[in-house]
Structures are given as structure tokens and as C-alpha cells.
Amino acid sequence: MELAQFDTKAALGKAAAENGANLISRAIDNNGRASIILATGASQFEMLSALIKEKVNWSRVTAFHLDEYIGIPLTHPASFRKYLKERFVDKVPLKTFHFINGEVDPQGECERLSPLIGQHHIDVAFVGIGENAHLAFNDPPADFETEAPYIVVELDEACRMQQLGEGWFSSLEEVPQKAISMSIRQIMKSKTIICTVPDARKARAVKNTLEEIVSPLVPASILTTHNDAWLYLDQESSSLLNKGA
Questions:
Q1: Which of 12, 25, 42 is nearest to 202 (CA)?
Q2: Is residue 164 situated within a structural domain?
Q3: At residue 98, what are phi and psi to the nearest 5 degrees?
Q4: Would residue 114 count as lying in a domain?
Q5: In total, how many domains does the chain have?
Q6: Nearest partner of 128 among 9, 213, 29, judged by Cα
Q7: Cα–Cα distance between 182 and 168 in angstroms, integer?
Q8: Are 42 and 129 in contact (CB under 8 A)?
Q9: Looking at residue 200, which CATH number applies to its domain?
Q10: Which pLDDT tens digit goes with each residue over 129-186?
């Protein structure tokens, strides 16, 4: 895993976006098209803001949605579909964006999306790490074995508390207990993974990801086994790392 540390979130986001844009453009040059995965959450604000400013032939890009709550309408402030539509999809002329619909039968939605992503080789996955070290909505202990591209998952309390703390909900009771998530193995099939993780509240998760053994109890630790994964940190999120880590 390549580790890059920056003084500010803005610098972190800009560097991650530039790397991702270059990789997307390279895939388009080589194959005539590119496929990407996009995450949401507060950790992606700066990266997405910078990515939409990059010179990419977006009409050649197909994008896939990483995860979504079950039962949250598109109009809800916490809707990841709303988040991505407002911050990315409405701002660049993508070929296609495959949203996860959390308002329909969850298993049916997984079965709809799974063959769609199965038709694509993912060039770049833009992801983050949760405060509990989750990857997408794969909370610990994450399923490292399933080959299903999309799965229904239970959200643990630490994950739900993070969503509350980020201001998406007004009470813990409002945070859904289930979601549709891209699976660990599907994420790991991506040619390149760009993981942006700012803020002090992620410092423990970053430390565990890089310094603990690879384990479903630290889902993001699996990233250290990927052939081309990049971890973008700021001073706060890297503050607990051992010297030289």
C-alpha cells in the first residue's frame, strides 16, 4: 500500500483526485472507456470537489455506487444517492451511473446490480475508511469470503454513531440498521484503490488498518494486501501511526 500524508484535507483531496483522474484517463486511452466506484461521507468532500474539476472524458466513464442505506428516500439529507447526485453526477457528463436504490426489495436490488458490475473491470475505486475501520458498509467482523458483488449488511452501533456524529441524522434511532453494500471481494477486484481518510476521529482506524494483522475485525486492513492501493491521510488521521509506518 502506498501511503501519502498531507498537511490539510484540501491538499489530501486534490492529490487523491489528481491521481484518480490520471488513472481514469489512462484507462480511457488504453481501452476507450473506464469504470469507477464512488464512495460518500464526509471523508470524500474534498476529493470529489477536486475530481469534478479534473480534465477527464467523463462520457467514457461508467460509475458504480458503493453503498446505500435501506429505507432512506432520495429526498432524505442522509441519502447517498442524493449526496452523489448533488456532488458528482449532476456536475460531470458521465456515460452511466449505477445507483443503489435502498427503497426497493434489498435482495432484489443486489441481484439487479451484481450482474451489472460483473460486466465491468473496475479501473479505480474511490473509498474511505470508517471510524470502526469499516470498508464500504462492511462493519466488523466483515465478510471476506462472499463472492456476491452486492450484499445486505447490518450496521453496528459504532457505524451508526459515526453517521449521527457527522450530522446526517438528528438521533441514533433515525439511523437505519441495515444497508446495501458492495462486498469486500468486489472492492478488492478493482485495479487501483484510492482511499481518502482525513480527520482525527479516523486516527485509530488508520492505525489499526496499517499496524494490526489483516482481519475481518479490522475490515480496511485487507487494503494492505492489494497490489495497487493508495491511502491518503492528513496530519490528524495519521497522528497515531508509529514512526516510520
A1: 42
A2: yes
A3: -95, 100
A4: yes
A5: 1
A6: 9
A7: 21
A8: no
A9: 3.40.50.1360
A10: 999 999 999 999 999 999 999 999 999 999 999 999 888 899 999 999 999 999 999 9
Residue 85: all three cell numbers together: 447526485
Query: What's the confidence (pLDDT) of residue 168?
Result: 87
- What order of strands is seen across the sheet that includes strand 96-98? 2-6, 229-234, 192-197, 124-127, 34-38, 61-65, 96-98
Determine the structural domain holding residue 20 and report its residue range. 2-46+67-234
DSSP state of 138: B
Q: Are 7 and 106 in contact (CB under 8 A)?
A: no
- b/e for 50-85, b at 16 or more Cβ within 10 A? bbbebebebebbbbbbbbbbbebeeebebbbbbbbe
In a domain, 51, yes or no: no
Q: What average pLDDT does range 60-64 have in this prediction?
A: 98
Q: Are 133 and 219 in contact (CB under 8 A)?
A: yes
Backbone angles phi, psi at 224, to 5 degrees: -70, -15
Structural domain includes residue 58: no
